[in-house]
Description:
Blueprint: H1 3-23, H2 29-54, H3 64-70, H4 78-89, H5 103-125, H6 135-141, H7 146-165, H8 167-170, H9 180-192, H10 195-206, H11 233-249, H12 256-273, H13 276-289, E1 292-294, H14 299-322, H15 329-339, H16 341-355, E2 361-371, E3 378-386, H17 392-406, H18 411-419, H19 425-428, H20 447-450
Antiparallel strand pairs: 1-2, 2-3
Helix pairs in contact: 1-5, 1-7, 2-4, 2-5, 2-7, 5-6, 7-9, 7-10, 11-14, 11-15, 12-13, 12-14, 12-15, 12-16, 13-17, 15-18, 16-17
Amino acid sequence: MSYGHWIRGAEASIVAARQSLRAGRAADDRSIADTAVARSRVYQGLAALTEVLANLPATGGMTRRDADQVLGKVPATPAVVRGGLLAAAAAERVVATRQPVAAPGRAFVNAARKLSTAREILLSHAPPRRAPLTPEGVAIRAGAGQEAALGDVGRLLDEMVLADAAVAGWLSGSETLPAARPLAEVALWASTSDLAVVAQELMAVGNRSLALLHGLNPPPLPHMTESTAIRSADDAAEKFAGVCSWLYRNPGQARTAHLATGTRLGLAICLAAGARDARLPWNDAAIMASNMAGSPPDEEGQLVADQMQQLSRWIQDDVRKYGPPTPGPRQEALDRLALMLPILAERLLRVMRVAVPRGEVFLRERAGLHKAPGQKIFHAVGAWRVANPWSAQITAVRQTLTAAAATAPAQRTVTRVASRGFLPLAVAARLRPDAASTPAPAQRRQARARR
């Protein structure tokens, strides 16, 4: 399930908590204590999500007094937003480790868990203080989708402020219980501070931006398993994403076999999807890669090469059996594969940059005629030599793959895929804003009016 799924789920859980706070009353001290801790977990989850989105350094929190000095008075930068969220999470003298029994506490716990899952999806692509692990992680570090994602944080913060405004009514009649006062104080501060102003500012910016992260899923597993049969177009798209992820994570294990099978796969996708602009560079690259050889890959690398061959055969057999794709799952899968062709070209370029200097790529020399002693028959015998980075063939392959990587997907393909809500972040981040016209989050009703 995607990042956007968990963000929407967290919002639904916060709304359920607010409704429970307005509809009921606190039963006992345990219910109050557990709800206070669950509420703090939501704010801490929002702060942690903001930290990952903006790649902020890990620092201490901000007191409520410090937050009053900056919230609403300076621009809502990610660091300021994180400080305000941590200040709202600081409920003193409240400790609870049990599963909440009250409905508001259970809803807050569900929201915190969903925020944690959304954060883990981001971390699987761009872990803190480390190089990004995937092309999507590179895009995240470059700021792709950040404004819209912070707009999501603002929307969730706005819902939390409204929930805090309902805490006083929920605590009515229980003010003398030990856990009631800390919760009442922090909820009152959050609902009357300028957190609502910060939330509105974040939403205003986010609503003008593309929600690129909503379709982000965890990356495929980097280690390949035994190849399985491709039963559907979705299987083909998933296997292709796994191949691209493996090539990105393991450039040192890639060999000439991956270059040859990868270029043939790119050509097969172009022919099946009707990507005319990209067909010529992929065709040239496939022809030149067929005249190369190299050291064999290891067991895992051979599985990846086998999967690329399997994908090529499936695409060719599918077109031969059913003809050109028509609107439906087949067309959708081929559109998704065609959109990822520039990413595959970049991965293969990276393979060449690593394999050629290591002497693992061999070029075919012109065949010569040779006769064994005592025989009258001449045999054409091919010869191979180790490629160097300045070889004419290597330069030509690099140029064709560079052209393939720079070829923008057809506008009609982008429109079809974006209309179905699937636009890979690594692709969308490089498109013009008008090309990746994914819908922005719907305008939310004003917080002041809901109070």
